[in-house]
Design a protein that fits this description.
About 30% of the residues lie in helices and about 15% in strands. The protein is an alpha+beta fold and about 270 residues long. The protein folds into 3 domains: about 60 residues, no CATH class; about 60 residues, no CATH class; about 90 residues, no CATH class. The strands form 4 sheets. Strands 5-6-7 form a 3-stranded antiparallel β-sheet. Strands 1-2 form a two-stranded antiparallel sheet. The chain has a two-stranded antiparallel sheet with strand order 3-4.
Length: about 270
């Protein structure tokens, strides 16, 4: 609907006869001279700007008269009934959420698993990650049993198998963190540090790190002088730089001195 009753137009050799036929006095001068006409008297293909309001969404805008019936908000809008049919055909029920375009989030319920979630019509039509519960279940099925790339790769077939370890070493590796002796050593290291990370001086989630590595120094495994308290992030940063095996005390002190950890205080 056009809101402006009158509009200012300029002289044009293409339209002046049209307005004169309607009784307007048209100044035949170029150079920005305008005259006022009623909006309904504009030619159908007039490019004069007018204010309009969409009859459907009530949005107001300014556009040329020849495009007065075109609403950018409603253009390409799918009727609600059609949206509901698409949603139900995909196996969902539409619980709510205003539909304005294909990117509007709709509140949906999966008819298969009863999971409630939000998704847009664009993704529903593509069927990409629609119901999160059903997607995870299908993902589990795809990597289940023989479909899993690690299926049957245990023991020596596992890519992480270490030939240098003995059976006793492997058993100790599995159980050492459940060992009370190891837990006692770890607590004493943290207690000696005042439950503060030796690098960043924070008391976030803490780990106990061996200065002399576990594998090469069996007699120093539970020695409280062979440990340092690190937060989990600093601990990960150290091993990311120096690897997870054959670490030395010199590596740690060099790491600390060079302030490689992003959490070290300046």
């Amino acid at each position: 609907m056009v809101l402006d009753e009158f509009v200012e137009v300029q002289y044009s050799p293409n339209t002046y006869k049209h307005f004169e036929a309607l009784g307007y006095v048209v100044p035949r001068k170029r150079g920005g001279v305008t005259f006022k006409v009623r909006t309904e008297h504009l030619p159908e293909k007039s490019r004069s700007l007018v204010r309009v309001r969409c009859d459907k969404c009530k949005a107001e805008s300014v556009k040329s008269y020849d495009r007065r019936d075109s609403c950018l908000v409603c253009r390409g809008r799918t009727p609600s009934q059609k949206v509901r049919k698409i949603v139900e055909a995909s196996g969902f029920s539409w619980l709510g959420g205003e539909y304005r375009n294909n990117r509007s989030l709709l509140d949906l319920k999966c008819l298969k698993c009863s999971t409630e979630f939000a998704q847009c019509l664009h993704e529903i039509e593509k069927m990409v990650y629609v119901c999160p519960t059903c997607y995870l279940e299908s993902l589990r099925e795809r990597v289940k049993g023989e479909n899993n790339p690690m299926h049957g790769k245990s023991g020596i077939l596992n890519p992480a198998w270490d030939d240098s370890l003995t059976d006793a070493d492997r058993a100790l590796r599995i159980t050492r963190r459940q060992c009370k002796k190891y837990q006692r050593w770890s607590y004493l290291i943290k207690e000696a540090a005042g439950f503060i990370c030796d690098c960043c001086r924070e008391n976030r989630k803490l780990n106990s790190h061996h200065l002399k590595n576990w594998k090469d120094h069996p007699k120093a495994r539970y020695d409280v002088t062979n440990g340092v308290c690190l937060c989990e992030e600093c601990h990960k940063a150290f091993h990311a730089e120096n690897g997870k095996s054959c670490n030395t005390a010199a590596q740690y002190y060099q790491f600390k001195e060079n302030s490689q950890c992003q959490h070290i205080a300046a």
